């Protein structure tokens, strides 16, 4: 191992207290050479790192392309994934952005003997370039080194045979710690290289790594914020031309991360709940992207199309209005596709039980969709005895109106009576707690309704936005978010 590399790795041995400043490490990592491989999506840094001045023309740092490279990847990954509080992150920035390095050491002095370019070293588009000579710039190049290692690990014929040997060599921390810190760094420095490495980790490690990302409250916020910044950075005169790292790349990268998270969400948790707190901003931004997509020169970009698909899931899950003045027609089209199918996979008796609880616990409001009275309900349906109305006129209007009550009245009565549901909403007489299987046994024994009738009942009931909104919100599985 070279003296310089040994010095650098030793200086990072304690990731809480790196020995040198940002300049030193950025200069070093600018020499991690990606040019020996082909077929990867992106090089970590531009081909000519801005390191030498005329007075130091003999500065020739060797490219890190041998087995030594794996050691620096491990050190960099450890730096990124080591647990730090927000206060520790801020303190690290203060220390590393101020150079207190020992310049009497010739190696250390050489690592500082170069002039910074005013522009950032990476190839991200305007509005997303990272500040040089800063912790932000260091995090960016560190993230690119780890991302490049993840990409190389995917190749069967790895041109850098020792960098890395396996995908597990690319990530120093466990999945939970790594996800927490990558999201925390992204929240402090919302830059594309960090989002890129998150996409790489999700892609290469799959479900074990993705689940911790789904627990983050910061990741959805920053995905949506970067997506919005991507749209805001598009010039007004943009004609729709594209290039792999053109001005629409931040949008594409956000959709790539969304795709990785969406395709591996487990435990029946809807992707809509990952973005729930960001829903208005997400759908507003996706609508803008969809209109931009109409100008693009490509026939179709499936990564973008999946982003609109996710927008439809969010719209459908949260039972938002089909308002073409607020949402792009493509998003509304996907929403209609998912409107009823979101709930359909539930076991039929479990869904029917959830529906009956919703009806029983529903506020005492008139169930006539066209009722405008604020007085509240004053009578129960004389048939099922579990649906409320203002008066006989409202009951008659609802009988054959929109989402008519007539086809489900007898079924509500049969299911409610079979399982012992109260005939009206009364806090002193709550609906019985039971599993879907227990409810199913009671229905089969006491109602005379077969499984197909229960399925038909479910589909009719979830067609009512009011019922579906409660079902989606109250009975859907979701992850408990960790703010940190």
TrEMBL record:
Which InterPro entries does the entry link to? Answer: Znf_MYND
Q: Which named protein is this? A: MYND-type domain-containing protein
| Ribosomal protein recorded as keyword | no
Report keywords, A-Z. Metal-binding, Zinc, Zinc-finger
User: Which regions form coiled coils?
Assistant: none
Instruction: Report which superkingdom the organism of origin falls in.
Output: Eukaryota
Q: Which residues form the MYND-type domain?
A: 368-409
Q: Name one Pfam family in it.
A: zf-MYND
Signal sequence, start to end: none
The answer, when asked if Zinc-finger is one of the entry's keywords, is yes
Q: Which GO terms describe its molecular function?
A: zinc ion binding
């Amino acid at each position: 191992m070279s003296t310089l590399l040994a010095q650098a790795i030793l200086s990072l041995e304690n990731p809480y207290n790196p020995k040198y400043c940002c300049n030193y490490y950025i200069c070093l990592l600018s020499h991690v050479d990606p040019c020996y491989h082909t077929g990867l999506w992106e090089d970590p840094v531009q081909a000519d790192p801005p390191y030498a001045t005329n007075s130091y023309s003999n500065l020739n740092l060797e490219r890190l392309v041998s087995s030594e490279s794996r050691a620096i990847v491990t050190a960099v990954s450890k730096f990124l994934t080591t647990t730090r509080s927000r206060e520790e992150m801020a303190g690290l920035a203060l220390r590393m952005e101020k150079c207190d390095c020992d310049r009497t050491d010739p190696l250390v002095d050489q690592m500082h003997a170069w002039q910074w370019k005013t522009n950032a070293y990476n190839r991200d588009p305007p509005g997303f370039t990272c500040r040089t000579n800063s912790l932000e710039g260091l995090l960016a190049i560190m993230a690119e080194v780890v991302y490049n290692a993840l990409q190389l690990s995917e190749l069967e014929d790895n041109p850098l045979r020792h960098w890395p040997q396996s995908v597990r060599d690319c990530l120093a921390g466990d999945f939970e710690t790594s996800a927490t810190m990558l999201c925390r760094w992204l929240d402090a420095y919302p830059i594309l290289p960090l989002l890129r490495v998150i996409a790489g980790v999700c892609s290469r490690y799959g479900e074990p790594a993705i689940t911790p990302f789904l627990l983050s409250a910061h990741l959805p916020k920053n995905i949506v914020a970067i997506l919005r910044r991507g749209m805001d950075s598009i010039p007004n005169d943009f004609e729709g031309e594209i290039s792999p790292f053109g001005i629409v790349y931040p949008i594409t990268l956000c959709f790539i991360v969304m795709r990785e998270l969406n395709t591996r969400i487990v435990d029946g948790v809807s992707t809509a709940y990952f973005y729930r707190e960001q829903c208005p901003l997400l759908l507003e931004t996706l609508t803008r992207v969809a209109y931009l997509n109409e100008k693009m020169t490509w026939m179709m970009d499936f990564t973008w199309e999946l982003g609109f698909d996710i927008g439809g899931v969010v719209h459908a899950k949260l039972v938002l209005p089909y308002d073409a003045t607020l949402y792009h027609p493509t998003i509304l089209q996907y929403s209609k596709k998912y409107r009823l199918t979101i709930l359909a996979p539930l076991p039929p008796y479990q869904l029917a039980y959830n529906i009956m609880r919703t009806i029983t616990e529903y506020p005492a409001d008139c169930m006539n969709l066209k009722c405008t009275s604020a007085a509240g309900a004053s009578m129960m349906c004389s048939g099922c005895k579990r649906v409320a109305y203002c008066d006989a006129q409202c009951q008659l209007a609802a009988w054959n109106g929109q989402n008519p009550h007539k086809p489900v009245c007898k079924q509500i009565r049969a299911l409610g009576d079979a399982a012992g549901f109260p005939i009206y909403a009364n806090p002193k007489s709550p609906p019985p707690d039971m599993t879907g299987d227990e409810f199913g046994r009671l229905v089969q024994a006491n109602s005379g309704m077969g499984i197909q009738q229960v399925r038909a009942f479910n589909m009719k009931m979830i067609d009512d936005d009011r019922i579906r909104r409660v079902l989606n919100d109250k009975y859907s599985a979701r992850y408990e978010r960790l703010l940190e």
